[in-house]
Amino acid sequence: MKRFTLALDLVDDPALITEYEHWHRAGNGWPEIKKSIEDAGIANMEIYRTGNRLFMIMETEENFSFEQKSKMDASNAKVQEWEQLMWKFQQPLPWAKEGEKWVMMNKIFDLHHK
């Protein structure tokens, strides 16, 4: 199992943040999106928020690749519709590359490893 951590900012607007959280509560997301995540080899995904900053933890199968997931997403009309909806709430981190949404985070501390 591989683990990835990523970050993204939300537009700093309380009403938009409330709506974004609504879409991510159990039962409110689209089943096609959950299926696309699982089909890509993602075993578990969690998103946390502080202020307008989001933090995502992904646990994936060993053969998971972001490139393959991007290809799958690009050919899935429902995923593209979801991504368009989510851009209403999201904004790239100031250091994100052009067109980059979620930015990979670097682990800088691990209590159990030297």
Automatic annotation (TrEMBL):
TM ranges: none
Q: Which branch of life, at top level?
A: Bacteria
Gene3D superfamilies given in the database record:
3.30.70.100
Q: Name one GO molecular function term.
A: racemase and epimerase activity, acting on carbohydrates and derivatives
Coiled coil regions in record: none
Protein name in the entry: L-fucose mutarotase
